[in-house]
Amino acid sequence: MTILMPEPDQSVLARRDEIIAALRKIVPGEGVISSAAEMKPYESDGLMAYRQPPMVVVLPSTTKQVSEVLRYCHQNGIKVVPRGSGTSLSGGALPLADGVLLGLGKFKRIREIDFDNRAVVVEPGVTNLAISQAVDHAGFYYAPDPSSQIACSIGGNIAENSGGVHCLKYGMTTNNVLGCEIVLMTGEILKIGGKAAECAGYDLMGVITGSEGLLGVITEVTVRILRKPETARALMIGFQSVEAAGQCVADVISAGIIPGGMEMMDKPAIHAAEAFVHAGYPLDVEALLIIELDGPQVEVDELIGRVEAIALRCGSTTCQISTSEQQRLLFWSGRKAAFPAVGRISPDYLCMDGTIPRAQLPLVLRRMNEMSEKYGLRVANVFHAGDGNLHPLILYDANKPGEQDAAEAFGADILKLCVEVGGVLTGEHGVGIEKRDLMPEMFSDIDLNQQQRLKCAFDSEGLLNPGKVFPTLHRCAELGRMHVHKGQLPFPDIPRF
Amino acid sequence: MDTLKVRDAQEVEDAVRAAIANEQPIEIVGHGSKRTVGQLMATNAVLELSALNAVTAYEPNELIITVQAGAPMADVLSLIDSKNQQFAFEPMDTAALLGTTPGAGTVAGMIAAGLAGPRRIKAGGARDHLLGANAVSGFGESFKAGGKVVKNVTGYDLCKLLAGSWGTLAVMTEVTLKVTPRPESERTLVLRGLGDVVANKAMTAALGSPYDVTGAAQLPGSALRTTGGALAEIAQPDQSLTLLRLEGITSSASHRAQSLRTALKSFGEADLIEDDASAALWRAVRDVEPFAAAGPRALWPVWRIVCPPAAGGALGEQLSRESGGEVIYDWGGGLIWAALPPATDGHAKALRQRVEKIAGHATLIRGSEAVRAGIDVFQPQPAGLAALGSRVKRSFDPTNILNRGRMSRGSAT
Q: Do A175 and B396 touch (CB under 8 A)?
């Protein structure tokens, strides 16, 4: 493990038995897990390179229990890491050795479906896909669709502000959540927003979304649902250069067309995916675009023609248009299976997640190829092309000495490059522990201090999910002082990790 | 009152630092077009941002525009319009409602007020379109929030807090906004003479249909008597109008308009209004023209009420019946504009009782100084939320130097 976490508090660890007993009083029965064997499944999330057994796992089933657990931990100076389904790819739910892992998996009820207000109220452990399934019979769905939607929980989606293929047209989680019930670290239960389209006062829902479990524990969520589009069709378009494919993306958008999804794969990714799912992808192209148009039939049919014409002008060498739902899904099958497909051609891979201005794509890909040579590691690329969100997959073999370190250094270089060309460190996976130490690439100390001050407004003792997102831990009292000078670390005595 | 006209972000930082040092709360102003909204402020100096008016970068293909805080909204709208683009949140022009100079208002002012137009129900609000900002906090420090790309989850989304915070958290100096293609064409279906509750049902049905409705509004007949322009052209005396908008490529908008017309047959025969005429109609709805300050309702307080959409019809009907006022429903009933006859408290007490029952909230957007001095202009929050809000305010502005008192009575925050 190359990421350092806060030093465990030995005084807390010394009280472990007492703490477990107290937690058992709040959450009786099987709700408290403390044996090493039973805690094993909780020691990492989707970022499995990092593992840490928690001090204890608590699985509450009511808001009252969550509140009492947090109040107890707050009063006793015990750290808490909230966890949904554990599908985070940035280590957001990585446990702490001296912390309680608070699993929300038992919060699985859909509390209310309100078609008239186009809203659904659910508990945080409900999966993303289950929301759409619950309203499907009436022709509705929940738009944000992270790749892990079959498993990821809506509470986790809010923590990470998760995206997916539909983001370009339908927005991210933050654009589709109306309200929540949240428990602060003190145990205080607050209701924020509801079925109305706006919160009163400051937009607390907006800042809680994407806060990576550092501000509070969500126990109920109200999301917006949309009517399902009448139809969807996809084009699969091949190009002899990434530049031509990038131009096609830009031209589609400047023609006023916002597709339901617009994804790109480079040659290594195309080959890996085709070998895996046999989707009929052309193997003699450098870049493949999958563009999906959704909406009323008449609109989709016309836009398919417009996009095809744009692609031809941009030099497409192959273009297939789906004529059935089965074929549309086949086009997507390779893209959706790109990660496991790449897993078949390499013992290990790192999946990166940065966003760049789309126009910088050719430059970024060129520089990535140079880095690939420098580090001696292959890279396959899949992108959410419409919004510039890249997922370079860095291939390596953890059994070869030095390769994992090289892969991580390569990944860090890619993210720094994203920032250098005007982009950001993460488009949808979050900062977590994975990109925590890269935050200064994008934000100054002043920027980060301002974010941490906000954290203090929610959690003044810094007990909720510490060690994530911020490369340096500050004490709230010190962050509140005025006249911190630019560029200077204000409190050099506070250790950096 | 001192007015300091700043020219760049450094001068903003200097000014805020000086204000902190002198313990002198400052009012932040762009064009001043919305100065009359909010509680009366406990400020005695003005920081004017209108000279920070440059367009820093406009990248139509990237769907973003970066402008300085004081850039005139009218200029920026005209610039993006020249590339067939728009702000999808359809920002309202408050000039007619507040009686200020037509076309005035800055981009950051619009974001700080967080006011969105009829497309809010489909495309989201101002908060959904602010991708990044540079701002100066009440610590006198320049900080960056967000970024300049449409998909970004790096760190806390401070932009969400800045939108709708009425200048109480930080002084924005530059903002990056998402732009989207302007629809090729638009169609509006007009139903006539529906009562509020029935109209609300029609709007709910339309918004729940697969026809992608991007605007659903109900205007009372009584308000239409007093307005000119686009509304007067289609209105009959004392006849309410229910408007439903469809946008997109021409073939699609026409097709969906026909389908929706059929689907809503039980609510009556709908007229069809196209393109420019339709756009004019929605501008009138967006800007709440029936309650214009130049009209006979000039002295009436105007409230902006946000509630669960399906509850809007009954609430609006009750409000107008009890007070003798008039209401306009936007967002399919999720937003109600209510103009109520003059009253000492602007009807705050009665109105809030009704609104709270259905989990909504209300803000007095137009009201005299006397009314604003005596009531909570913004919706009072439950104690826990209010306390958290105050802590959030202090985390940006610990000495309460920025727009002191604008959002909360008693000038505490």
A: no
